[in-house]
Amino acid sequence: MKASIVTKSVLALLIAAGVSACNQNKTETKPAAAASTAGTTAATPEIVYINQDSLVSKYDYIKDMDKRLGDKSKAAQSDVQTRQQAIQREVAEYQKGAATMSADQRQATEQRLQRKGQEFQQYQQNAGAQVQSDQMNEQTKLYEKLVDFTKAYAKEKGYKMILTYQKGNATVLYGDPSLDVTNDVIKRLNDAYTKDKK
Known about the structure:
Helix content is 71%, strand content 5%. It is built from seven helices and two strands.
């Protein structure tokens, strides 16, 4: 499973979350007139962005999440393969000895193998559904974690909007590097995640 592809789609939702969070904080931000006085040279920008590609590759929580999901997926695939091979061995053994069996024995064995095959298919579907469910749960946790962080970060810094930028994404064609808060965000997220792990 490609967990990082799903991760990127969840992070794309941060644009909407950032806009929503910043709109909720409008009453708590500085008035535009005060921020744009003629003599002020270091006014706080109202809109900043986070490089999504860097966030995905450098945020330790995402790395650990991708590893957890990858390990669960591999374990599920291995278990399914083991069960499939066991059934295939039983079918091969039946085929070898079918000629020496009575009609009743053949019929009983075929029915048993058919039941096992149906049970295996159901197990395989359930295993796949469980992996998808685990991915969705992890993505939901990640999304909530990033939304909560982004809301607090915007409030602390006085930003009205935090966007995500991704190379090749036509939504943002250019962002002034002075508006890029990616490194600060990743550092804070990793610091908080390290604290949570202890």
